[in-house]
Design a protein that fits this description.
Length: 278
C-alpha cells in the first residue's frame, strides 16, 4: 500500500468537514458573484516561495513554501493568521463515507477507512492528476487522453471520453458539467451524465496550474500572466485579468475575492494579490 499516493481524504475527515458545512446555512445565491473587470483590493508579501496549489477553506487561504512552512492567511483582512513548519496542507478532494482513493501510475484503487481494498481500476495510461469525486462518481483522466467516470462504490465504468489532450489537473464538477483542463491548452466541458463534449475553449498557453471554481465560473491559470474565467453553464468566456507578473500558483476564489500568487521577475520575491469585482 506504501507504493500508492493518497489523493482522497479519509472518511473521518470527510465527515467532519461535512458536519461543519451542515451547521452553516449557505445562501441560495452568492451575494457577491464574480464579475469582470476586477480591481486590486490589496497585496501581502510572501515569506519564501510557494510550492503546490494553495487551498481555500471559508475565508482562509493556506499555502506551502519550499522552505517547509504552511501559512494561513485571512483573506478579508489580508493578514497572516499563523505560520508553522512541517504542517500538512488541508485536504482538497471529496470522499465518500468510509472510502478514499489512491493512485499509482495507471491504477486507481478505492480503500475503506482501514486501508482495505474495495475495488481497483486499471486505466489505459498513467493517471497524472488527482481524481475528483462528486455525486457518487469518480472522475479522472490519463496520459492516453482518455477521461473516465466510474461508479465510486463499485469501480464500474459509467462512461469514458477520448479527448485531444491529456487531462492535467483534477476536474471541476458543477451541476451537470465537468470541466477538464487538457494538455492541448483547451478546457473541455463534458456532460456529467454520458460524458458528451458540450463545448471547448482554447486558452493563451499551457494550463500549468489547477483550475479553481468561482461559483458558476472556472478560473484558468496558464503559463501566461492572464487569468481566464469560463462560464461552466455556457462554455463562454466571462472575463480575463492580466496579473502584474508571472503566476507562482493557480488562482483561488473566496467570495468576493480572487486570490493570485504573483512573482516579481526582477527580484524573484512573491506576493499575494487580492482582487474583487469593481
Amino acid at each position: 500500500m506504501d507504493r500508492f499516493r493518497t489523493v482522497g481524504i479519509l472518511a473521518a475527515v470527510g465527515l467532519m468537514l461535512a458536519g461543519c458545512a451542515s451547521q452553516s446555512v449557505k445562501p441560495l445565491v452568492d451575494p457577491f458573484p464574480l464579475r469582470f473587470p476586477l480591481v486590486e483590493a490589496g497585496t501581502l508579501e510572501i515569506e519564501g516561495h510557494i510550492v503546490g496549489q494553495p487551498r481555500v477553506q471559508g475565508d482562509i487561504v493556506y499555502y506551502l513554501t519550499r522552505e517547509g512552512y504552511l501559512t494561513a492567511v485571512v483573506i478579508p483582512s489580508r493578514a497572516v493568521l499563523w505560520r508553522s513548519k512541517n504542517e500538512l496542507m488541508p485536504p482538497s478532494s471529496s470522499a465518500l463515507a468510509g472510502i478514499s482513493f489512491l493512485r499509482d501510475a495507471g491504477l486507481i484503487q478505492a480503500v475503506d477507512a482501514e486501508g482495505k481494498p474495495v475495488w481497483e481500476f486499471q486505466a489505459e495510461g498513467a493517471i497524472q492528476a488527482d481524481p475528483a469525486v462528486a455525486r457518487g462518481h469518480v472522475y479522472f483522466g490519463d496520459s492516453d487522453r482518455t477521461f473516465y467516470c466510474l461508479d465510486a462504490t463499485t469501480g464500474k465504468v459509467r462512461w469514458r471520453r477520448r479527448l485531444q489532450g491529456a487531462p492535467l489537473h483534477p476536474a471541476l464538477i458543477r451541476g451537470d458539467t465537468v470541466a477538464v483542463a487538457a494538455s492541448n491548452s483547451v478546457v473541455y466541458l463534458l456532460a456529467r451524465k454520458g460524458g458528451s463534449i458540450l463545448s471547448w475553449e482554447a486558452v493563451p498557453s499551457r494550463i500549468v496550474y489547477e483550475p479553481a471554481a468561482a461559483g458558476p465560473l472556472a478560473l484558468i491559470a496558464s503559463a501566461s500572466p492572464a487569468i481566464v474565467a469560463l462560464d461552466l453553464r455556457t462554455g463562454k468566456r466571462a472575463g480575463q485579468y492580466e496579473a502584474p507578473g508571472p503566476l507562482a500558483a493557480g488562482a483561488v476564489w473566496s467570495s468576493p475575492y480572487v486570490v493570485l500568487f504573483v512573482e516579481d521577475e526582477a527580484s524573484g520575491r512573491q506576493k499575494i494579490v487580492f482582487l474583487r469585482s469593481r
